[in-house]
């Protein structure tokens, strides 16, 4: 399940001025938000390489969907992960939520078996991307099935965010947090057990790894049988 930015692009990519620049996100005031995703948060606002694009802008939507579908056909992966998919912005030129729906619809044309997952959740996108990474506040997991577990578990599921620590070191791997003491998720219908693996995780903490495997087995017995 490779990751693609649902609404962010590098400014120096060929063709950016055509398929992205006119669709850059606007606030209601008419200003362009400044933001940049960076694997090293110490330089998060230093280089500003990334531009936020409203997925309601059709050329961006088509450009991204064509890349994902082409790679899906070439490599045969089972799912595509849309990063920052839960971003909502009150752009006066187009709804970011409607744009996300149109993007997912475009991806599923001719690819009905391609699973689409996303980052974080709010009720407005629950029917667009039912499988999402759990949210977090400063690396502390926030589970979207709370406070109404039955409502979420009925149609949606979450799994561990990329900032979830590994069981051996608390390492978040490529995520900019670096370290996270949280490495295990609760076993509930709406929360899929998730294991973070870096370098020597499996050999350095086999007992903790086994606990997460047991959680997965318990989940399967309770909710998948």
Features:
225 residues, alpha/beta, 6-stranded parallel sheet
The fraction of residues assigned to DSSP E strands is 5-15%
Cα-to-Cα separation, first versus last residue: 24 Å
How would you write the strand order of the largest sheet?
A: 1-4-5-6-9-10
Q: How many helices does DSSP assign?
A: 6
Mean of all residue-level pLDDT scores: 92
- What is the chain-wise order of helices and strands? EEHEHEHEEEEHEEHH
Low-confidence stretches: none
Structural class: alpha/beta
- Rg, rounded, reads 18 Å
Largest sheet: 6 strands, parallel
Percent range of helical residues: 25-40%
SS elements, strand count: 10
Label the overall shape.
globular
Describe the structure.
The chain has 6 helices and 10 strands. The mean pLDDT is 92. The strands form 3 sheets. The protein has a 6-stranded parallel sheet with strand order 1-4-5-6-9-10. The protein has helices spanning 16-19, 58-75, 96-108, 149-155, 201-204, 206-224, and strands at 3-5, 8-10, 50-52, 79-83, 115-119, 131-133, 135-137, 140-142, 157-159, 191-192. The chain is of the alpha/beta class. 29% of the residues lie in helices and 15% in strands.
